[in-house]
Structure formats: structure tokens, C-alpha cells
Amino acid sequence: MSQTEKQKKEQKAAMKRLRQERKQKIKDIAATVKTQKEAVKAIKEQLQNHGGTVPQIARETGISADKVLWYIAALKKYGEISEAEKDGGYFRYILSEGSPEEIFNGQPDGSQDTK
Amino acid sequence: MDAILELDFDALIVGGGIAGLQAALDLADQDYQVAVVEKDTSIGGKMIRLSKVFPTLDCSSCITTPKMAAAAHHENITIFTYCDLKSLESEGLVLTASITQRPRYVNPDKCIGCRLCEYHCPVYVADKEEGGFSARKAAYIPFSNAIPQIALIDVENCMLCGKCAKVCPTQAVDYFQEPENFTIRAKTAVLATGFELTPVENKQQYGNGEIPNVITSLQMERLLAPHGPYNRVLRPSDGMEPDAVAFIQCAGSRDKSMGISYCSRVCCMYAIKQAMLLSGSLPLADITVYYMDIRAFGKGYEQFYQNAKAMGIEFVKGKVATIDAGANDSVTLRYEDQNGEGVTSANHDMVALSLGMIPGWNPEGTCPVSTAADRFIQTIRPKIAPTRTDMEGVFVAGAAAGPKDIVDTITEAGAAAMEAAKYMTAMETARKAVA
To answer: Domain range holding A97?
Structure first.
């Protein structure tokens, strides 16, 4: 066995031990991530056609409005959602064009910093 | 067991906010070797998180970023971020600081700040840099102009999926990093440990921080920053552009029920600044400031206040007694209007609490420097040498010594650097005389 292969094997074993040590925590976080993925999927589905405002998305998805805004702020930061025109007292949000990977490649920090 | 790393510097600066950076730059420019120890992941302190500064309305990060960059690139300054000061003791004429470097789980020498780990991390975590209004990932760079631009992994929210390690182009991710202890020896030290806001959870009459759309002043700063969580001012409960916004003064100062009887000095001016910025971004909104009395103490501050009134911002003299959740996510204030109709109530879409300043650090158990009754670091000659503490060779600058604005903080940091330089010169002269 080469030195590199041996190192890889040791690294893998060490990761396994670490995962075992943090088993419960990992389980809890994985459950959170599952909820987050479902929420993001539901929000994106709502935005797929004509976009929507936060209360509209909240109504359609059953996610609370403050949480919808929280996800939208995050997805906007990571370039997956854009702000569109105003609709009454609210702004509409639409999906950004291109996959996140393409956006990241074109825009190194993926953010929408206006500074 | 590995030997603990020992480093020698002329001066140690505790805190990498604007006071610490100014003191570090002033000492480094005099050819002293300076170490800056910062507890946060980036230098820049509170100032880098602000939108604009009063009374000039200059962009805050436009002033802070060059200072941060100057310190980071200065050949006489070494910056240690994400570090805890465990002890600072005097041993003869030498100060010894024991410091723990918290693990980033990313090798700082390998990380190139590309953020690929952040983009691919699947875990969203509330971003405290954005007042909790947005999310970051479990693997992240704190903010876009953070210094250093080094990623870290929030181990409390990491599920060890390995995606960050897989995409990292430089193999910088290291899940097995441990805290590292090291020692800094210096001739002098400047404490620039800054402030925190009064905890809103302590004020039951104001809803203990649980009423929707009642936010803190630092959260309002983030909403007003063009690079903030929404890139505009929106109501956090539902994304509505607010039509009526209120600022409540003395929400965490001059209030013995919270154990803070002193005035935090800057709240009046920062609330006026925020009201003016808000008026600029939401010209049709009704903006009201509820105050006990306006303390516009600095150069140009009274004119700033008068300008705000001329812009149509309403100032209501009255201490708000209670805050309650109203209909449709609005906020109801009950107060006594001292110039009008007595006890009354008003509804607003959003309310910002002008919270006071409390010390950012308690030296007890870490460093034998005394604190005053208000728990800020005590200065022994406040009139003629306001940066001197009761520990020889240790000076204090900025909000660590008491509430003050940015102008006074920077001035005091310069003074602390001069005192420290003077102290080192005197020590060197004495040493030569003995030799």
C-alpha cells in the first residue's frame, strides 16, 4: 500500500470516528437541513412561474411569512433569487437565471453587495 | 506535550475594532512591533457593521475598511483573530498574555477565500452579522469585507457531510483542528475591548425581544446598509415596506430597572442618523422619535438634530412605558406625551429600540485592571490622562472606558498610543540609566 493510500485510509477512519462522536448532533442538524431543503424547494416552486411577494408565498406554502423572508434574503444573497417590481407595499421575488454554480462562476462572491 | 509558542512584541492591543486599529496603526507607524488580538472572526469591530456615521453621513465601511486594510498590511502589525485572551498579567516590567486560538476548522495558510465551501454547504444558519434577518452557511466567510478573508466552519451546525472539503481547491478544510494556546510578551498593552448593546431580553415592558418588528438599533443599522440583508428597509415579519417607523430613546440606558443608570451618549445621535437615512430611503414614511431629552453634544450635532426636524421627522417628548404587539404585525406604544395629550398610545409598522452601551469585556479573572461602578474600565486620571488604568503599562481606549462616539473613540485611541509610546520610551531610558 502506498503512503498516499495509507493516509487516505487513516483520514477516512478518523472521519468515521468523528461522525460517531457527534452522532446525535449530526442527526439533529440533518433533520434541520431536511426541513430547510423542503422549504427552499416549496419557495422556489412558487417563484417558478410569475414570482410572488412574501405574504403570497407564505399563503401558498404554509411557511410563516417571517421565515419565507428569511429564506428569500438568504437565497438572494447566494444569487438564486432576485427582487422584481413592487406590488402594493411588498416586493415581488423571482428566480434568478442560471444555476447557482453558473452564478457563482460568474460572480466570485455570489452576493449582491451594492457597496 | 507541545511547547507553548511564545511571541515577543512591543505592544499588545486587545480588540481589533476602530479604537484598537487606530492605536495599533499609531504605534506601528512609530516603528513599534504591535500585536492585535481580536475575539471575533474579523477585525473592524462594531464600526464595520454600521451603515453610515453621524453627523457627516459618511459611509461607515468606507472609513473602516481602509483602516482594516492598513493594519492588515502594516509590516509592524500582526493580527490574531478568533482568539480569546485568557490572562494578562504583569511580570516585572513585562506584560504576559495567555491567548487561545479557537479552531476555524480551515487552515488559514491554505484558504484563498474563494467561498466555494460556503456555496456548497447545505446548512443554513441565522446570520448574526445581518441581525439574524438572513442566513449564512455552516461553512462561511463572515462578511464580504471581513479581514482576514478566511473561511471557518461553525461546528455547532456542521453535519460533517464533507462537501466543503470535497470542493475546496486548496484542501484547506481540517475537521480535526484543536484550540491552540500561545503567549504574547509585550512592554505595554492597550485595552480596546469596545461595547455591547443592552440586552433587550431584560426589558419586560418592551416585550423581552419577542414582539415581531421590534428591532435593536444594530439590526436597524443592517437594514439601512445598502449591502444589508434585504438591500432595503423591509419589515422583518412579512417583507412589507414600513409606512410608520418609531425610534424609542433610552430603551436601555438611564434605566435603573435594567441596572444601567447612566446615559450612553450616542443613542440620540445614532437614532437621528437612522431616522434621516430612513427618511431618505422611505420618503413617504412617518418617522417618529420618542425621547426624554435630546443630547446633541458634539460639533455639528445640534445642527444635525435641527436638520432632522426640518426633514419632517417627528420628535415626541415622552418616555415609552410599554410596547405590545398590535393588529396586522404592527406595534403599539403606550407613552405619556409631555407636550401634548398626556397618556396616549400609537401604532407603528416597525419600532427600533435605541439600546444603550454596556462593556464588551469584563476583565475580572483575566486581568487585574479595575472597573468603575458602571463596569467600564476605570481610568485613574480621567481629567489629565484619560487612557491610564491602575495597571502599570496598560492603557485603555474607546468604549472600553465608557460610552463614546466614533470621533472621541479615535481621538482617545491616538492618545492611548501616545501614552503607550511614552511609557516604552521611559522604560528604555530607565533601563539604559541602570546599565
So the answer is: 3-106
State pLDDT tens for residues A1-28. Answer: 677 888 889 989 999 999 999 999 999 9
Domain ranges of chain B: 5-102+179-194+360-434, 103-177, 198-357
Q: Are strands B244-248 and B286-291 parallel, antiparallel or unpaired?
A: parallel
Model pLDDT, residue A100: 52
Residue A8 maps to a domain = yes
Instruction: Identify the residue whose cell numbers are 484563498.
Output: B112
Query: Residue A38 is part of a domain; what is its CATH number?
Result: 1.10.10.10
Distance CA B17, CA A113 (A): 22
Candidates 3.30.460.10, 3.40.30.10, 3.30.70.20, 3.90.850.10; CATH matching B103-177: 3.30.70.20
Low-confidence ranges of chain B (pLDDT < 70): 1-2
**pLDDT given for residue A111 in this prediction:** 42
Is B228 part of the contact surface with chain A (CB cutoff 8 Å)?
no
**Neighboring chain A residues of B123 at a CB cutoff of 8 Å:** 29, 32-33, 36
CB B124 within 8 A of CB B137: yes
Spell out the CATH class of B198-357.
Answer: alpha beta
Contacts of A74 in chain B (CB under 8 A): 124, 127, 134-136
| Minimum Cα–Cα distance from A20: chain B residue | B160
Q: Do B144 and A89 touch (CB under 8 A)?
A: no
Quote the Cα angle for B48-B51-B54, to 5°. 100
Contacts of A66 in chain B (CB under 8 A): 212, 236-238
Interchain proximity A29–B123, CB inside 8 Å: yes
Q: What band does A112 get if pLDDT is binned at 50, 70 and 90?
A: very low
Is it true that domain B5-102+179-194+360-434 has CATH number 3.40.50.150?
Answer: no
Q: In sequence order, which ranges of B161-226 are alpha helices (DSSP H)?
A: 163-167, 217-224
DSSP B287-337: EEEEES-----STTHHHHHHHHHHTT-EEEES-EEEEEE-GGG-EEEEEEE
pLDDT digits 0-9 by tens, A66-107? 999 999 999 999 999 999 999 999 999 999 976 555 545 444
Determine the residue among A103, A105, A115 to mutate to test chain B binding: the one whose Cβ has the most chain B Cβ atoms within 10 Å. Answer: A115
Of A29, A53, A66, the CB nearest to B157: A29
